[in-house]
Amino acid sequence: MADADVDGQHIRTLLLTLLFRFMKPLIENGFVYLAQPPLYKLKWGGKEPVQYAFSDRERDGFIQMGLDNGKRLPKEDGIQRFKGLGEMPAKELWDTTMDPATRVLIKVTLEDAAAADDLFSVLMGEDVELRRSFIQRNAKDVRFLDI
Fold first, then answer.
1. How confident is the model at residue 40 (pLDDT cuts 50, 70, 90)?
2. In this structure, what DSSP letter does residue 49 have?
3. Mutual orientation of helices 128-138 and 110-124 as an angle, nearest 10°?
4. Which first-to-last residue range defines the signal peptide (predicted)?
5. Number of structural domains, the chain?
6. Quick one: CA dihedral 123, 128, 134, 135, positive or negative?
């Protein structure tokens, strides 16, 4: 389990690389899963239930659908972006990420871990030209930059 933002993606990459390189049987035998905590909480006005979004796109879709259905989001606390798991109250973390009845888990495959290992090797390895090429190819995706 890691944060839902870009920092969490970095942590997941590091953990998958560690598991792939030093504990591969855990992945090969299907024992590794990624818990998916939400990135946003939407609190609609009135008695509408809270919604959790796992991406910007999902948040935008929920907002559009809600507004189309006449719902309103309070300006002061209608949308909350979780900066990290530590920001979430324990009960909310249980309800959204840990409870077996409601959580979202992604099973890690050997291919997932190998891709993480490859990425880690490019970004942290000694081949400067490979890293430069990777950055140049992927600079267009800078929308994922979280500063």
1. very high
2. P
3. 110
4. none
5. 1
6. positive
